[in-house]
């Protein structure tokens, strides 16, 4: 899907042009709308697309189309430390969860829930955790409704995705992680800022302990 969208942009669009709506892209490329959304997110990270709130998606630059999402993620792999990335997440994500508890829309809450339910449906599947753990946290960032925060996370996104590829395979207790995700979600649903912040802190602490334990093996 990502390749098809890249090809369409290269052939038919220039910087400054507005992309068709998600539904139209899905029809033209013969894929589901979730696949379109994921491809757009990937191209945002590559700085090809910029999202203008309330106006849609625009082509920002064609420079990032020379490589690709996987290439970018693999290139970054050797340039960051997992524990250092976790330190940054601890600075950002608890506050983001607190903001999401008071700012989220019903639609954004539903997006968070969808990612949680996908995990709960397959509680022993590392591949499912790898994918939907990332999307769960990303949905919380969006629900915080802070554009500077969203831009910061977009910059970190290749590292965050690469880290999920690693932790998704090595997490020793998937049900525990999913249960913590449920606690975070419920705090956001109830509008409990302090509880959401604390739940996210506890969750990231578990992630850190798992990383340290894995390193000692």
Number of helices: 10
Helix amount: over 70%
Strand order of the largest sheet: 1-2
Could you give me the name of the CATH homologous superfamily of the largest domain? GntR ligand-binding domain-like
Number of domains: 2
For the biggest sheet, the summary is: 2 strands, antiparallel
Decide which structural class fits the backbone: mainly alpha
Write down the Rg. 18 Å
Q: DSSP strand (E) fraction?
A: under 5%
Q: For the record, what CATH class of the largest domain applies? A: Mainly Alpha
The strand count comes to 2
Question: What is the overall silhouette?
Answer: globular
The SSE order reads HHHEEHHHHHHH
CATH domain fold name of the largest domain: Four Helix Bundle (Hemerythrin (Met), subunit A)
**Second-tier CATH architecture of the largest domain:** Up-down Bundle
Low-confidence stretches: 67-78
Average pLDDT taken over every residue: 86
Molecular structure report:
With 217 residues, the protein is mainly alpha-helical. The chain has 2 domains: 2-69, Winged helix-like DNA-binding domain superfamily/Winged helix DNA-binding domain (Arc Repressor Mutant, subunit A, Orthogonal Bundle), CATH 1.10.10.10; 80-216, GntR ligand-binding domain-like (Four Helix Bundle (Hemerythrin (Met), subunit A)). It has helices at 2-12, 22-29, 33-45, 69-76, 82-103, 106-121, 126-144, 147-170, 174-190, 193-216, and strands at residues 49-52, 56-59. It has a two-stranded antiparallel sheet with strand order 1-2. A hairpin with a 3-residue loop joins strand 1 (49-52) and strand 2. Helix 5 (82-103) crosses helix 8 (147-170), helix 6 packs antiparallel against helix 7 and helix 7 (126-144) packs antiparallel against helix 8. Residues 67-78 have low confidence and may be disordered.
């Amino acid at each position: 899907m990502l390749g098809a969208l890249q090809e369409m942009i290269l052939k038919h669009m220039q910087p400054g042009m507005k992309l068709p709506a998600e539904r139209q892209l899905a029809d033209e490329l013969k894929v589901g709308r979730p696949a379109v959304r994921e491809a757009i997110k990937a191209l945002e990270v590559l700085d090809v697309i910029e999202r203008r709130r309330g106006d849609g998606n625009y082509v920002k630059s064609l420079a990032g189309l020379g490589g690709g999402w996987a290439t970018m993620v693999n290139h970054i792999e050797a340039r960051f430390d997992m524990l250092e990335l976790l330190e940054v997440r601890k600075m950002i994500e608890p506050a983001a969860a607190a903001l999401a508890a008071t700012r989220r829309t019903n639609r954004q809450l539903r997006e968070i829930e969808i990612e949680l339910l996908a995990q709960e449906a397959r509680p022993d599947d590392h591949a499912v955790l790898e994918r939907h753990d990332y999307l769960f946290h990303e949905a919380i960032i969006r629900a915080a409704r802070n554009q500077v925060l969203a831009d910061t996370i977009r910059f970190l996104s290749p590292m965050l995705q690469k880290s999920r590829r690693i932790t998704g395979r090595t997490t020793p207790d998937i049900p525990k992680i999913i249960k913590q995700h449920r606690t975070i979600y419920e705090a956001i649903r109830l509008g409990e800022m302090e509880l959401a912040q604390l739940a996210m802190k506890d969750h990231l602490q578990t992630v850190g302990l798992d990383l340290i334990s894995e390193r000692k093996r």
